[in-house]
Amino acid sequence: MATPRDFDPACENPAEVAGRLGVDPDVGLAAAEAGERLRTHGPNELRPARRVPFWRRVVAQLADPLILLLFAAVVVSVAAWLIEGAHGWPIDAVVILAIIVLNAVLGLVQESRAERAVAALAVMTRAHSTVLRDGELRTVASDALVPGDVLALAEGDRVGADARLVRANALRVAEASLTGESEPVEKDPSTLEGRVPLGDRHDMVFAGTAVSRGTGRAIVTGTGMATEMGAIATMLDETVEEPTPLQVEVAHLGRMLGRIVVAIAIVVMLTVTIVQGVDTPAGFVTVLLLGVSLAVAAVPEGLPAIMSLVLALGVQRMARRNAVVKQLSSVETLGSASVICTDKTGTLTTNQMTIQRIVTASGVVDLGGVGYAPVGAATSKGRPLAEGPLRAEAQLVLRAGSLANDAQLAERDGTWEIEGDPTEAAFLVAARKIAGTTEEAARYGRVGEVPFSSERKMMSTAHRHEGGDVVVLSKGAPDVLLRHCTRLRVGDEVVPLDAVRRAHALAEIEALSEEAFRTLAVAYRPAPELAGDDAQADAAGLDEAAEEDLVYAGVVGIIDPPRPEVRPAIAEARAAGIRVVMITGDHPATAARIARDLGIIDEDGIALPGARLDGMDERQLRDAVRTVSVFARVAPQHKLRIVDALQAEGLVVAMTGDGVNDAPALKSADIGIAMGVTGTEVTKEAAKMILADDDFATIVHAVREGRVIFDNIRKFLRYLLYSNMGEVLTVFLGVVFAGALGFAGASDEAVVLPLLATQILWINLVTDSGPALAMGVDPEVDDVMARPPRGLHDRAIDLGMWVGIATTGVVIAVATLLTMDAFLPGGLIPGGTDTFETARTAGFTTLVFAGLFTAFTARSATSSAFRGVFANRWLWGAVALAVVLQVAVVSWAPLQVAFGTTALDAMHWAVCVAMASSVLWVEELRKLAIRMIARRRARGAAGVAVRPSGIADTRPR
């Protein structure tokens, strides 16, 4: 027996395929032989995705560059503790380790939640198939199918394996999940002359697709990983998953901070050693501790935990909007997306065939509404359809199409559902939109049928009216049906279908096709020869002879319509600088029509077919993706190449889809988005985010959420680094200028430090963490959708932020050191009488309060701190808690001992608050200057863009 991979069954006739696979199509396999083949080929199932072991997931959480930096800080802290004599506990190291553990736990918990959410979306059912074995039809589990099995296909069946058709009777198969084709595909066992794209293999049926109409027999040629779905699963295994932009940014930030920390520690330790003449072992230990303190001050220890919490909160907000995020770092990625690549069928459209237009002799009727819900108005030239010839003709078309029909429409639990062919169901839906049509159709009963076949491209039924008359109703391809028509229905009259009228009808049909409608024509004829009681048997045995001398009633335009919420969502995305690209397996004309309706392309835009992509090299494809926004008739490998080409252009790509054919591209994209309702399990596994409601508009909400999250990450980065830079400069400048500031004469310490290591740790881990976390839930200060997406190489900490960090750090350090100087005798500000411990406590307090003022200035890089100042109640709560904690550490005896503080009086507190507020006023002046410069540049740009004559200058700038 040949293996399925040894030949192409689509290009061999059924007898040859049966011979190769050792089976008689009329008998099927013997049960014993089927069992032997099952042992040889294995179960008919896809190879499950490899589960990541728990220990690898833990390592992944700990391998973050910022976490590695914290591990380094732990090592240095423990080393310094050992050098000091290992007295007590190494508090710094213990606290930092606790933060590392907390961060890892948060990440693991969120991943587990996402897995449970994905599992809840999955519908766990075991599929079954009908096969011919030992000459008898049997129902077996689909995972027990083997090559050579003979499938018996019927309407509603799910195809269990790839198979070569032996015979087919009006067989149509829905292949949207595999090829993206929106309409069920007609199947025909005639042998192909050569290899063709997957969507055009009419003599094959494929695993995972569904029979929408007709019956057939087919020989299984491929199971499990040897199916077309298996080939896609193999592509998934070979697809490299790229890190998210946030992961790249955090890695860069970790490396950068690591270098800064090492540089600061070395410079400060060398400076102190030289300036203060350290030459004793005790002095060197103190200098080493100072280096550790500055390392702790420079590294925002709470950053990883705060970032994880902020992302987790973002995940929860997205979940409430029906977006399930599987990976924390993916939350922000959508905010960086510059391109959204989307499938058409089921994503941009309803995947519910809908009649939108009826064309008859008297005019055109437009039907509103989308999908299977029979809701929508009938209009003509924009006005409600009135009584008259046009209404009568439209009702006749829909009544005849509803009767010559095998589909069913029913409402279940408030949702309208169909059974059977979606195109036929469209007639049932449309008939309910013109009052009286369905009621009149109910007065007829079917008495005969000439079934549809792919060769004839039409079907007919005979129906007896309750009054006794019999009528033959036909529907089919318009060009075919017109050849059977000799007359035309005009109002209540029947007139000859002469050459002029026939040409006019064909022109109307062509016009519908040019608008990407699928067209079906309807005709009828009275059949008095079947009306008598003795003619019942003749009606039941209706044949093709009854399909002559028909009266042409009209033609309908059918389309899989766009979801109503998608167009405004795309408009919002484009306004935010995000390009939407449609990638579909559907026909180019249909894809272009939908893209124009949704605003993806202009009226003169076209779709690029997949066949053209095959002839393009990578450079040509990159040129194409710069300008083409609609790709049609594409295969899974085309989608993957398109995504890769867009990424090669430096774009952040989000890819949406629901079918198995979308899975490799979803995995390769920066963020893959699967449909939760219609999406296949393979697609959900490959995606990083799942839309629980299949609503494209949810993606735009998620983009906004992602941008807000990144803005908030920048806010707490700005806040933490503003504060940390203030700490570093305070210690550095305080040591270097200790003599000028009066520190040296006021303290008998070998190395005079303006801040103790424990005080720095208190600021970083206690007072800073609350406001930083509150910024993670800060509402928008500026409209995040009013600006383009951030570039792939744009840094979270850019030059503008570094300028702000340096400016604010200097202001905080100067305010802190001058506060200390003011309370000490000598120095730059005379008149002080306090001890160095009191002055250091005042400086410590000023530094804390300056950080709290910074929490408000850090909410925006350019807007005033007073804009929406009360919008974030969590920030106010965090600031209030930090104030209470600072009062406690200064005033409560146990904490005074632990942190080296002394009590302050009212004057001390007032001076501390006043000096700390200087950071707010300086930052307000800096932002005002930035806004004034930006406005001046905007006015200048507007002046350049408009010539004195008032004619806009359209030259590129």
Structural class: alpha+beta
Q: Please count the helical segments.
A: 34
Q: Major beta sheet, specifics?
A: 11 strands, mixed
Low-confidence stretches: 117-126, 944-957
**Overall pLDDT score:** 82
Which word captures the global form?
Answer: elongated
Give the total of beta strands.
28
Q: What gyration radius follows from the Cα positions, in whole Å?
A: 37 Å
Helix content, binned percent = 40-55%
Beta content: 15-25%
What is the first-to-last residue Cα distance? 69 Å
Explain this structure.
With 957 residues, the protein is of the alpha+beta class. Helix content is 48%, strand content 16%. The protein is built from 34 helices and 28 strands. Strands 10, 11, 12, 13, 16, 17, 18, 19, 20, 21 and 22 form an eleven-stranded mixed sheet that branches. It has an eight-stranded mixed sheet with strand order 8-28-27-26-9-23-25-24, sandwiched between helices. Strands 1, 2, 3, 4, 5, 6 and 7 form a seven-stranded antiparallel sheet that branches. α11 crosses α25. The protein is elongated and about 125 Å long. The C terminus is likely disordered.
From the structure above, extract its key features.
alpha+beta, 34 helices, 8-stranded mixed beta sheet, elongated, 957 residues, disordered C terminus
Write the topology of this structure:
Blueprint: H1 14-21, H2 31-41, H3 54-62, H4 65-84, H5 91-121, E1 128-133, E2 136-141, E3 150-153, E4 162-174, H6 176-179, E5 185-186, E6 204-205, E7 210-222, H7 228-238, H8 245-275, H9 281-298, H10 303-320, E8 323-325, H11 330-336, E9 339-342, E10 354-360, E11 363-367, E12 378-380, E13 383-384, H12 389-403, E14 408-412, E15 415-419, H13 422-431, H14 437-441, E16 444-450, E17 458-465, E18 470-476, H15 478-482, E19 485-490, E20 493-496, H16 499-514, E21 518-526, H17 536-540, E22 550-559, H18 566-575, E23 579-583, H19 588-598, E24 608-609, H20 610-614, H21 618-627, E25 630-632, H22 636-648, E26 653-657, H23 663-668, E27 671-675, H24 681-686, E28 689-691, H25 696-736, H26 743-746, H27 757-767, H28 769-775, H29 799-823, H30 836-857, H31 873-891, H32 893-899, H33 906-916, H34 918-945
Parallel strand pairs: 9-23, 9-26, 19-22, 23-25, 24-25, 26-27, 27-28
Antiparallel strand pairs: 1-2, 1-3, 3-7, 4-5, 4-6, 4-7, 8-28, 10-11, 10-22, 11-12, 12-13, 14-15, 16-17, 17-18, 18-21, 19-20, 21-22
Helix pairs in contact: 3-5, 4-5, 4-8, 4-9, 5-10, 8-9, 8-25, 9-27, 10-25, 11-25, 12-13, 18-25, 21-22, 25-28, 25-29, 25-30, 28-31, 29-30, 29-33, 29-34, 30-31, 30-33, 30-34, 31-32
